[in-house]
Design a protein that fits this description.
Number of helices: 3
Mean pLDDT: 78
Distance between the termini: 72 Å
Helix content: 10-25%
Number of domains: 1
Shape: elongated
Radius of gyration: 19 Å
Structural class: alpha+beta
Length: 165
Amino acid sequence: MNIRYSARYFKRLLAASLLILTVAPQAANSEEIGSVDTTFKILGANHKIVIEAFDDPDISNVTCYLSRAKTGGIKGSLGLAEDTADAAISCHQVGPIVVPDAIKAGKEDGDAVFKQRTSLIFKKLQVNRFYDKKRNTLVYLAYSDRVVDGSPKNALSAVPIMPWH
């Protein structure tokens, strides 16, 4: 195989890979509650703040609300834009909570409960859950990471485990 055919094959493989990544389902299981536009774009969708809700996948009766920036324009409409690392989170007890022993044991870096792609390949918004044994509280940390250079921007929400009446 000569170099010209190898380059053409590589380009096709790269294009197919990018297409698969663009249409691949998100790891996050959330539902959009609403959004507000922040910047008008003549071409493509407007920049906006999106509000999503997701339930903790391992602990019943904890729901988190996440607001995050979503880039519009032509790149945003095609899924090629990189969203900023800005996000806010608020988590709440919506019924009786039973924390499994495996979660009570805790991990130093917490358990990932939400992940959403915020750029084509290298960046994602994550929420990790921590258990504060001393205060019997679940703590949720929202942050953005990137393969090479993450962001120190983060948001925090705590859910004290209370008797449910």
